[in-house]
Amino acid sequence: MPVLVTAQVENQTEALYDGMLSLLAAQLKQAEGFVMHSAHRAADSGQWRVLEVWETKAQADKFFAWFVAPNLPPGVRPKRSVVELHSLVTPGG
């Protein structure tokens, strides 16, 4: 079942986010189960919010553990939440 992973990231800057994305984008695009990634500065809190859709929670958790967590800057620890999606419409699906 597809899932939406939302990560609230305190102590994140645009430069730190961009650095992480440039480091991980190639692996992310090739990761099993990856559907999409987006991010924005949360207007209400100044935090960064990262949104990803994955085919399964296990795939999302595996990528986070193997690639994201080891590369997080000091003091940056995302608060992740995962919800199962009722529907997912993609251009090819």
Can you offer a commentary on this structure?
This protein has 93 residues and is of the alpha+beta class. It has one domain (3-84): Alpha-Beta Plaits, CATH 3.30.70.100. It has two helices and four strands, in the order βαββαβ. The longest helix is centred in the first third of the chain and has 17 residues, at 14-30. It is globular, with a radius of gyration of 13 Å. The mean pLDDT is 92.
Structural class: alpha+beta
The succession of helices and strands, N to C, reads EHEEHE
CATH topology: Alpha-Beta Plaits
At CATH level 2, the architecture is 2-Layer Sandwich
The DSSP helix count reads 2
Keywords:
93 residues, alpha+beta, Alpha-Beta Plaits, four-stranded antiparallel β-sheet, 2 helices, 4 strands, 31% helix, 30% strand, globular
